[in-house]
Design goal:
This is DUF1648 domain-containing protein. By secondary structure, the protein is mostly helical. Helix content is about 65%, strand content about 5%.
Length: about 120
């Protein structure tokens, strides 16, 4: 019974299949960034918004941070979308969450290809 309820709630989200794809992408990014740890240097340039130098560097385990934040955004926006009535806001929240997952993927892949030794 509980499985049917969760399927019904996901189907009530606009762009529900893309939403699930965003969740799967975020989980795959987390697992992928953990899998490539042995190919990365001890620190990676993750915080590009900070001043140049050591402030931009983070331990290599932090490479999964964009995917974790993206997953949190997906879950929070999905829950908010289930509670509000306005269709435009629902669509905007879901698309923003899917976009965050997409940009997290770009960030992780670019950093891994930049500093990794594959």
């Amino acid at each position: 019974m509980d499985n049917k309820l969760s399927q019904l709630e996901i189907k009530s989200l606009p762009f529900g299949q893309y939403f699930l794809g965003g969740i799967l992408l975020s989980v795959a990014l987390i697992l992928g960034s953990l899998a490539v740890q042995k190919f990365l240097p001890p620190v990676v340039p993750l915080f590009y918004g900070l001043a140049e130098g050591e402030e931009q560097l983070a331990p290599k385990i932090f490479l999964s941070l964009p995917a974790v934040v993206s997953l949190l955004i997906l879950l929070i926006n999905g829950l908010i979308s289930l509670k509000i009535q306005d269709e435009f806001l629902k669509k905007a929240l879901v698309l923003a969450a899917i976009g965050s997952s997409f940009f997290a993927a770009i960030t992780i892949v670019k950093i891994a290809l930049l500093v990794g030794s594959f």
